[in-house]
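Example record used in the benchmark description.
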Amino acid sequence: MSSKSVDTLLGQCILRAGRVFVDDNLAAGRDPTVPANRREILRASWASTRVGSNVATLIIEWALALDELHVDELGSEQFVDFSGSSRSTVYRRLSEFRRCWPEYDTPNELAGFVLAEARRRDVRVSPQLELALPA
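Model output (structure tokens):
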């Protein structure tokens, strides 16, 4: 799949959330040989879009926090203080992030990459920013 939307942070997050959704269904016993019906496809699309959007938003907010605080890394508690969101909301979003991006503990590295790319192009930090995300 080589769509332009997949080359955005938002597109990557939605794809990863979709993969998590499929893996969860398979782990719950869904038979992979039976084609999904329309309801299942809509449910998967909705769930992966919602979670992917939440994750992309977290990464962008994290990048904005790094920029505003002039730091290279943030801890979870520092982000809670910066974001103004409740601790439980931030930790729930971090949990979604870790499920979609299991290779990272926090969004620091991805947020730094997004911030650096936005600066290089002299554009605003945005989930629609086209990126070649690190593997």
